[in-house]
Amino acid sequence: MNGHRGCGWGHRCGGRVPADPGGGPRPFALPGDPERFRRARPFDLTHLRLDIALQVSARSVSAVAELTFSRRDPDARVLLLDAVAFEVESVTLAAGDVPLPFAYDGEALQVTLGALSSGVVRVRYRARPRRGLYFLAPDADAPTRPEQVWSQCQDEDARYWFPCHDSPDMRMTTELLVTAPSGWTVLSNGTLIERSRRSADAELWHWQQTTAHPSYLVTLVAGTFSELDATRDPSLPVRFYVDPGREAEGWRSLGRTADMIEHFSALTGVPYPWSKYDQVAVHDFTFGGMENTSVSTLTERCLLDERAALDATADDLVAHELAHQWFGDLVTCHDWSQAWLNEGFATFFEHLDVERKDGRDAYLYNLKQHADAYFGEDDARYRRPVVCATWGAPIDLFDRHLYEKGGWVLHMLRSELGDAVFWAGVKEYLTRHRGRSVETRDLQRAMEDASGRSLGGFFKQWILQAGHPELELDARFDAEEPMLHVTLRQTQTVDAVTPCFALPVTVSVMHASGEEQRHSLALDDRSRTFALPCEAAPRWVSVDPEGALLAKVTSSVPAAMLREALAGDPRALVRWRAAASLARHDDELSVAALERALRDDAFWGVSAEAARALGELRGARAWEALSRSVDHAHPKVRRAVARALGEFRTDAAAALLVGKLKAGDASWLVESELAKAAGRTRRATAYDALVGALARESWRDVVRIGAVEGLGALRDARAIPLLLALTTPSVGASTRRAAVGALAELGDDRREVREALEQLLEERDPHLVPEVLRALTRLRDAASVEPVSRVLRMTDDGRVRRAAREALRSLQSREGSEELRRLRDQVEALRDEVRAVRDQVAAASATRKTERPAASKRKR
User: Fold this and answer.
1) Is residue 367 part of a domain?
2) Among 184, 343, 802, 815, which is least packed by CB within 10 angstroms?
3) Whether residue 288 is found in the same domain as residue 318
4) Which CATH number fits the domain that encloses residue 460?
């Protein structure tokens, strides 16, 4: 499952959460969260035959489910099936249609089997699913929405539309016989056995999945689609299904799928394991994508127009869901606490696809961006082990620890073992556990068997413990010895949650001769100093130059070394880290070095990091450097420059950004970033341009969303009525969410804003309501406690419940928060004053330098 980020598909399930005013991450577990254990399985379910009729206008189903069972517990007499809000008509033994005693409480169907050890239970029922199976149709607020029906069963929502043991460790073969309107396409797992007419206006589609899989991977999608055939090997059909008229977008966005199948099969040593691979793009999907066995459901928002394709891609989403066909579908996490084995691998394969397509530098930069996302959640929200058995709902676990950190752990394991051993271990893991449920120890044992190494310590500190190292490098050359003294420190707080890590650390020394020397150092304490032979002062020193460690890395080395590394290291990773470190050096040479990197570096990521560093400096020289690069050839660098210019709260910055916004850009995403940055200048002169940008149509409304976020950052109260109007149901979903976030920036001490946001809590949109809850948290008004509590009482959506519980925790613990906010505003104002004084000093210094040559002509 993917809720994707990035230019992105909207994150997994976590969303943005305000930082704890006390600083640092809070505990992941919320009060009352139980420790979870494996669910009892007195019976196995081995096959599901589901005959289901879609009653589209009524948003309901009429169905007959036949479940083949076999006894595991000799004393068990009752088969318990998960089934929520069904109208159960009958429960019988299929052989002879003999009635069976049953009890049903609206959530669990208990069927008394007596001494039967095996057989087939037949359940006839009707349901109007509120989760799991979704019916779409046009309405007054969305008149162009197509009629579609699609399922989304992960984590445990299959129970809302068919009876099952809704747990990832119960695997069964399945067949779906779906009655749908004539002219529709119906997709499901496996092979299409039959398509026939049932009536004048209905057709039957019979799909069969002959390899067992869990209930959360069962799928049904029905609607009007255009089929695109990307098959290369006749034995493996590969098809895409998109809205009619969007075929070009489908090819543009999904066209690399067959290449990825070949690549992933070669990497794993295990051929693609299913009879086909379909991808279908649906409207209003609850996540970015879902890896149903042999057919992935994707959000139609991943389909790119030509301008979006300049600097956006759907490849990460496609790679993620495809990788799940091995990791998640072929082998499946034993329970949700082990879900990183699904999501971590799928995220890792996103990076591998980038590496193949764009090279090693891009691979490592993708990893860097994922690390930043994980660090952000860890800093502002909570810290937890990757494997965690205490949670309120399974969806709580689907966060940046599970995805981004999980993917990073696999990258680190690859780095430590080397490609040959790592991929041998992956093949052994998949082959040994094919068609079975797995736990972390299964992966560990496969890797240990392939490598001959003990990996218990690796998995303990990276998976079973929480946090990450914060590494600081200090290098001092002693010419008398001659020796380079390198000190490595772990500066993270070590406590009951976060360990002191045992790390293999590579330190690279670039000598004046141009020769590089690498030293493999073992850091198993808070701090160690190493004496490294070195004949002359090195040009530069870098730590972890290959990016093998998930760590926050800082270098306390002279600015001259950083400038040398930025200009001369062949590895983009070393260059972008040098650029980031130069953000602490506002001297003329360092700013010039950053500008050269911004303008000339061969890898766009280094240029982007140089722009970011200049934005953090915020000085007059940095402003000049950025303003000269606003038209950089690479759209991703232009975005970074725009973002950095937004750090300058000056009339000149606002004028430049507004001018570029009005002129437009070839890239939708650059226009969006220009709007956001113009708002961050906090200059009233940006207001009219941002209001004008609200009317611009663009791919996925990204320009309008940028304008909305810009208005929020501008902090101009004139925008409040406009933003309130953009929260209404007739507005696009992403724009509504952006407007909610912007109102949180503007709503301090404004009762009308708070009450308008509280009204939105009545909606059922599982993406909008958490955004509203986060906005109310940022407003910090205790009056919101009751409306938030009401959400918690009324909803059964795990994402909404988690957001509501976090909001309540924050709202109920923020006495004195207004004073805290006032102090923060004062600090920000003082920072602006210091920056202005610093610029004046720099200008005076520059004036003295220009006067000095004339003075030097005097005779002494």
Assistant:
1) yes
2) 815
3) yes
4) 1.10.390.10
Q: Is the pLDDT reported for residue 853 higher than 80?
A: no
Q: Which domain holds residue 357?
A: 26-34+332-464
Number of Cβ within 10 Å of residue 528's Cβ equals: 15
**Domain boundary residue among 420, 440, 464?**
464
- Grouping H, G, I as helix, E, B as strand and the rest as coil, residue 573 is helix
- Look at residues 842, 310, 784 and name the one whose alpha carbon lies nearest to residue 619: 842
Is 321:289 a contact under the CB 8 Å cutoff? yes
- 815/537: higher pLDDT: 537
Work out the angle at residue 296's Cα, subtended by the Cα atoms of residues 294 and 297, and round it to the nearest 5 degrees.
145
Q: In the structure encoding, which two tokens stand for residue 31, read together? A: 């009060």
CA-based R_g, the chain, Å: 29
Q: Is residue 314 located within the same domain as residue 344?
A: no
Nearest CA among 166, 76, 63 for reference residue 118 = 76
Specify whether 226 is located in the same domain as 363. no
287 and 408 part of one domain: no
Three-class HEC string of 694-743: CCCCCHHHHHHHHHHHHHHHHCCHHHHHHHHHCCCCCCCHHHHHHHHHHH
Cα–Cα distance measured from residue 620 to residue 851, given in angstroms and rounded to the nearest whole number: 19
Q: Pull the structure tokens for residue 258.
A: 């067959």
Cis peptide before 25 (omega within 30 of 0): no
Q: Who contacts 18 (Cβ-Cβ below 8 Å, separation ≥6)?
A: 380, 774, 777, 778, 810
CA distance 224 to 183: 7
| Chain centroid, CA 576 distance in Å | 23
Tens of pLDDT, residues 630-646: 999 999 999 999 999 99
Each residue's pLDDT tens digit, 13-29: 444 444 443 455 789 99
Query: Residue 24's pLDDT is what?
Result: 57
Task: Give the C-alpha separation, 540 to 294, whole Å.
Answer: 51
Tens digit of each residue's pLDDT (9 = 90 or more) over 744-781? 999 888 999 999 999 999 998 999 999 999 999 999 99
Does 342 lie in the same domain as 269? no
Give me 223's structure tokens. 């609607």
pLDDT in tens, 283-314: 999 999 999 999 999 999 999 999 999 999 99
Q: Is 860 helix (H, G, I), strand (E, B) or coil?
A: coil
Reported as a single tens digit per residue, the pLDDT across 448-464 is 999 999 999 999 999 99
Q: How many domains, the chain?
A: 2
> Which residue in the block uniquely carries the two structure tokens 């543009």?
252
**Tell me, what's the pLDDT at 748?**
85
Tokens at 66, concatenated: 């036949």
* 263 and 350 together in one domain: no
Q: Are residues 358 and 265 in the same domain?
A: no
Q: Which of 43, 48, 169 is nearest to 118 (CA)?
A: 43
In this structure, is residue 452 part of a structural domain? yes
Tokens of 100: 């069976």
Q: What is the mean pLDDT of residues 700-705?
A: 98
Q: Which residue has the higher pLDDT, 166 or 820?
A: 166
Asked if the structure places residue 269 within a domain, the reply is yes
In a domain, 511, yes or no: no
Residue type (1 letter), 539: R
The model's pTM: 0.93
Tally: H helices and E strands in the chain:
26, 31
Q: Final residue of a domain: which of 297, 324, 351?
A: 324
